[in-house]
Specification:
With 402 residues, the chain is α/β, with parallel strands linked by helices. It is built from 19 helices and 11 strands. The strands form 2 sheets. Strands 4, 5, 6, 7, 8, 9, 10 and 11 form an 8-stranded mixed beta sheet that branches. A 3-stranded antiparallel beta sheet has the order 1-3-2. It is elongated. The two termini are 32 Å apart. Homodimer. Residues 175-384 form the O-methyltransferase C-terminal domain.
């Protein structure tokens, strides 16, 4: 959502001009038409390819952060291998950034800049994981006089120069300033640091012409939901009612309602969003706040919502969801569409796209989670069981049961 900010601002005017002058027959083809030509997996693989290409920016961003914080030097001084707490202390980074540095290092290990050795029997983000230098990270060291001959300039200078387009970008500057903060400042994400304190939600609301965030999310819904119904429509079977939380103008709910006319579909969103909702549709709209309460229904639908919020906020949202649904034996459940990092561990492009997207979402204080992280949130919110269905490319469907 954030890596393409500058690009989106550049093309937004071009997009509006093109849509105005092109013949309707030349405009983008809907997913239903594409599904007649391609399989769901071919379309999801195509999306993966495009996301992977777009998110390449965050390979550079991760490397720029590591160079700015001199991570390679810290590991070198610690003997060439160190845990994250050791690196944080040696590099003089605030301990509040330990979890976020892990996310940066995850990108750099997937990319081969560092290697990581996990303690036996421990999960991937354990603080005892040991990060080691590779030949690539060895070239980033600044304080090793033996790495260059007398009078020879160090190799990291050329890397710094190639990273200038990244480090000079708003997002690049925001990330570096954020990691150098001495303590956490609630609500002040790298995106806000880059844009004079303006959050992504502020920017979407007040500057939609140059930052069409809501249009982009609606576009994603229009692409993904027909695939959801084709490949995993059974998750909606047997429901009489469904609440789409933070469902915007009802794109997802309308598609579900059209496919399952017997399901009463409701969208819950903020009053200023619901005020713009279309009339005369097969969807009901309720103005409210998911942090306060959620309308009663057989099931609650959360499409790409929870990754925007931290652990405590996710627990609060899910507790409200739990209060809105009946017990499991009466059909109550939560249907989540979100990433489960590492859901396809044998596919390197798949994993790399997920961890790069995690850096993107970190810019707005969000987080992409692996199964263990999801599990902790689910159980803390009072749920007893869940099922992950990794069928949507880099995203999964999660059924969560009370």
């Amino acid at each position: 959502m954030v890596s393409c900010v500058c690009f989106i601002e550049y093309i937004s005017e071009k997009r509006r001009t093109l849509l105005a002058i092109t013949n309707p027959k030349d405009r983008p083809i809907g997913t239903m038409a594409l599904l007649a030509e391609y399989s769901s997996q071919e379309l999801l693989q195509a999306q993966l390819q495009l996301w992977h290409q777009c998110l390449g920016f965050f390979k550079s961003a991760a490397l720029a952060v590591a160079m700015d914080l001199r991570i390679a030097d810290a590991v070198h001084r610690l003997g060439g291998a160190a845990t994250l707490p050791q690196i944080i202390a040696e590099a003089g980074i605030s301990p509040c950034r330990l979890g976020d540095l892990r996310r940066v290092m995850r990108v750099l290990t997937v990319s081969g800049i560092f290697t990581v050795q996990q303690p036996a029997g421990r999960i991937s983000h354990d603080a005892d994981a040991v990060y080691k230098l590779t030949a690539a990270s060895r070239l980033l060291i600044r304080d090793d006089k033996s790495s260059t001959a007398a009078g020879q300039l160090p190799h990291f200078l050329s890397i710094q120069l190639m990273l200038v387009p990244c480090t000079d970008s708003p997002v690049g500057r925001g990330m570096q300033a954020w990691f150098r903060q001495e303590k956490e400042q609630p609500g002040l994400a790298p995106f806000a640091l880059a844009y004079s304190g303006q959050t992504i939600w502020n920017r979407a609301e007040h500057n939609a012409a140059v930052f069409p965030f809501n249009d982009a999310m609606a576009s994603d819904t229009a692409f993904l939901m027909p695939i959801v119904l084709k490949e995993c429509g059974e998750v909606f079977h047997g429901l009489n009612s469904l609440v789409d939380v933070a469902g915007g103008l009802g794109g997802a709910a309308s598609i579900v309602a059209a496919a399952f006319p017997d399901i009463k579909c409701t969208v819950l969103d903020l009053p200023q969003v619901v005020a713009k909702a279309p009339s005369g549709t097969n969807v009901n709209y309720v103005a409210g706040d998911m942090f306060e309460s959620i309308p009663q229904a057989d099931a609650v639908f959360l499409k790409w919502i929870l990754h925007d919020w931290n652990r405590d906020e996710c627990v609060k949202i899910l507790k409200n969801c739990k209060q809105a649904i009946p017990p499991r034996d009466a059909g109550g459940k939560i249907i989540i569409i979100d990433m489960v990092v590492g859901s396809e561990p044998s596919d390197i492009k798949h994993v790399e796209t997920q961890v790069l997207y995690d850096l993107l979402i970190m810019n707005v204080n969000g987080v992409e989670r692996d199964e263990q992280e999801w599990k902790k949130i689910f159980f803390e919110a009072g749920f007893k069981d869940y099922k992950i269905i990794p069928i949507l490319g880099v995203r999964s469907i999660i059924e969560l049961y009370p």
